[in-house]
Amino acid sequence: MHSSRRQFLTRVSLAAGGMALLAACGDGDAEATPSAAPSGVDAKWPDLTSRQVVVAGFGGETYEVRQKLEFDPFTKLSGARVTQASWDYGKFTEMVAKPNPEWDMIDFDGYSIAALIEGKTPPGKLADWVRRCDLVDKQYQDYAAGSYAYSVVLGWSTKLGATPTGWADFFDTKKFPGKRAFPKSIYAGTAELALLADGVAKDKLYPLDLDRAIAKMDTIKKDIIFYDSYAQGQQYMAQGSASMIATANSRMIQLKDSGKPIDWTYQDAILYPWGGFALTQQAPNADAANALIDYLSTPEAQAAVAKELYLGPTVSAALDLLTPEELAKQPSAPDNVAKQLSVDVPSLAKQDGEYVEKFFAWVGK
């Protein structure tokens, strides 16, 4: 099961553009002198001796923006350059507890971090001086910070005429004709939305009945066009190849804001309430890695990402830095959280291997 999970999640990283190795902030000769917490930053860093941090991330548009808004400013403030490595779940789990790991940290969903913590090889614990993210579940706050929330939402073409009101309409091809754009390599939220469409109450959803979810997805498989990346899903909707889509909230906001005849809703969306950067236990640049996570967890950094990418803060103080219009677009804004299904992180951590196996098998059959 673990081998299949690794293969599948490697496909996810490829789809997200994560296999591109990106250099950051010049060469070693051009680096600034490491220092303690810089003036103007609400941080209590020790003197940093490390001159780089190696981060395994997903690349693509999200990481281009993070480079500009977060990594480059951190380098100027700390003297430690941020080098992005290709995201790979299996590679991280193999190095997480070993001496002299290649990476310092990886960008993970909350349930992946929870699974590691509850398993035999937990990630490294954050330094005591790293700020904790208050919207991360309390039992995981010592291991996860610096990332964001996102949602899998229902989107549709306004040319349909009628307006869908929930996931049941996604499966109703008579009332709402047309192809459904559906993820092939990004399985997040697929079982949950299928079960909601099949009438399962939100408070009865976990543990997931994955066989029932697959059976529901089978009912429209002939009407599905699969996308390999969120960008491809956007293209299907923009060119009219599909009339409805299940995709990330950020992608639907971008499409609607660009003037395309598209609408979407947070109603009954599948909310992944937090992710985090997980450390290797013996991170080679532990001081700078902890400082970076602390920096990424500041309300200012979190708000900047939320404004640019519509990825919700995991620090509540960041929400106060957004305008009402900006707040309305965030998946972790209180009014939007109330509309959604927030995934049960501990339960999903226990089922994730089975989830991957069954979704992957369904896509391939």
Automatic annotation (TrEMBL):
Main location, first listed in the record: periplasm
First and last residue of the signal peptide: 1-23
Compartment annotation: Periplasm
Pfam family name, one: SBP_bac_8
InterPro entries registered for this protein in UniProt: SBP, TAT_signal
UniProt KW keywords: Periplasm, Signal, Transport
Name of the protein in question: ABC transporter substrate-binding protein
Organism: Cryptosporangium japonicum
